[in-house]
Amino acid sequence: MTSITINVSESISTDPVDLIEHEIAIPPSQTVSEVYEFFQKMPHEFLAVTDGGRVLGMVSRGQVGFLLGARFGVAVYGRKPIGEHMLSQHLCIKRGTPLLEVFETALSRHGDYFYDDVALLDESGNYLGMIPVQTLVRLQSQLIAEQVRLAETQRLELQDKNQQLFRSINELRQSRGRYDILFENSALGVGLLDRHGAIETCNQRLEHLLGIEVSPERARRLSLTDMIQAEEQGSFAQLLHQLEMLPASAAPNSGEFTFSLPGRGPRLFKLFLNWIQETGQICVLLDDISEQRVLERQMQRKEKSALLESLVGGIAHEINNKLCPIIGYIDLLLEEMQRLHTTTDLKRYCLIIRNSAEESAKIIRQLLQLSRPHRVEMSRCDLRQIVREAVDLLRFRLRNLDCQVNISLPDSECLLMADATQVKQVVMNLALNAADAMEGRAIRKMNLQVVPSGKHFHLLLSDTGCGIKPEHLERIFDPFFTTKSPDRGSGLGLSVCYSIVKQHYGEISVESVLGEGTTFKITLPCGEVPALPPIPQPFPQLLSHGTNGSLNSSRVLIADDEEFVAGLVQQALKMKLGCQIDKALDGHEAIEHIRQNSYDVIISDVRMPVLDGFGLLDWIGIHRPALVPRFMFITGDAGSVELNEKLDSCGVTVLRKPFDVETLVEICRQKIKTPAAAVAETGNNAAPDFVRREHSAPLQKLGV
Description:
By secondary structure, this protein is α/β, with parallel strands linked by helices. It folds into 4 domains: 16-142, CBS-domain (Roll), CATH 3.10.580.10; 186-288, Beta-Lactamase, CATH 3.30.450.20; 379-525, Heat Shock Protein 90; 543-693, Rossmann fold (3-Layer(aba) Sandwich), CATH 3.40.50. The protein contains 21 helices and 23 strands. β4, α4 and β5 (118-121) form a beta-alpha-beta unit. The longest helix has 53 residues, at 133-185. It is elongated, with a radius of gyration of 56 Å. The N and C termini lie far apart (135 Å).
């Protein structure tokens, strides 16, 4: 018999015990009359006849009534035992019989037997109770209704699933189309790799980026690992191995690797890798970032240059403001001592102070060269002497390092037109770097060699240090790039060297072998000494103490927020020219003075609070244009390349701090002594030529 599973709700019981109507049974020895009386007292239609719990048969109310209702029935059958008058057929089922089998057995009976109740037995065959056939019919009807309901539910569910399947197939087609579009038209190279890095499939973009063609027969032979440079293959293999151990929700791993591609050379790629759990593959996205990294480095250099320009400009302005009164008051002090015939020792002390201040000013100018190179102070110098002096300055450091220094110089002069101080700075920076690179090395040797070559001189400086990594060679001249710890270097030394060499129309290059040493090569053009411009001769008044009578009535306005600088200018002009001096702390205050008074000279700083020097000059150009030729700037630094260019092109005299008192006095003297009409005609030419040519160059010291 085929087994059929019936799914019914929990409200319909499938245990036959729950279908029992009663558990009444009678013994076979009970008389028919007694059974009749028993039926009269109960509502049940059938009773089981049992002996020791075993079912012998079954009697019904109708059967007993039929026996006793016949003529002479009571007399004939009334005292007979019921065991002799049981139904000819009865149905017994055991507990645990499948419900379908119960239905088939009980409801497939024919004739009057169909309506007989069913006796339920336990597993041992003992009587449990009587199940009415009506109960079985009703239960079957309920089950049929339940099955119909379930069938309808399943039909609706199947219909819904079919619709979902149709939508899923449609979405799958659309997804496949989108996948093909995105996969093949992606701006990134997309590929699937096995766990060892072999390419199993990829889009056309990846083939284009790598310069390969992935066909089914070649796919297993193309490995992404083999295309990566040898020194990076270990890192890539480790990255692949780590992917399998990451959870499914983990973000893709990424890394940058250099590929060696035929015909394209080394290219830097950004890789995004993710493990696909379902297929055991690795999804990789490739993006060529070679040009991006170049642009990023250029932007970083620009940002660093802008930051450096801002910082250095501010520092230069402040320090030059402090150096200016030092040099200026020393000049006044020297002149006063000369007038009083003071001892030579005091003059020597003053000269030492002045020379130190001037050296500090030179250092500031060198610092400014890092962000915006100034014009170098060219003079005739011997490259051999520069090298000797640089080594002498570092002799103590090199001796402590126990470094052997070998210098090879030509016998004849190696004349350059150069700024000797700056070239010396280059040699010292390179030597210090070499000394740092040789710390801890068994062999410490430094070789300096000057080699004439036609119209150039080559300066070679080599060491036996640790060398420079190949990936660092192209960055060593970048500002702030350094491989040293923060307390050992700032990354500015080689940047300054590069800037200085370029200003001298030279070249600097480097060759290095990691673990063996480094050689820097500087090439500088040799040059003929040009005719020097004549040094302006000072007016006689510069040599004498006191004032010129014609200048006593002159009036000068000084606009500067630095008290000591304004005080120096005031003292110098009063001593030298006997001028009347007014002072202002900013441009607005200066404007109020100009509105109330007439001035022969207006001296202004560039950087001032509230209203700066440019704002003051703009106001004068609009409201007092005749005073523009009598206007002059004194400044430590304008603050940026744009402001310095504006300063140089503004059409007025510019005197940079720190300046000589004689230079300041001579400019003011010429502006005061030039008639107003002549000033208006000559304009900026009223300033001495040497001031226009190089504002920061000191005059030849006279009378000291």
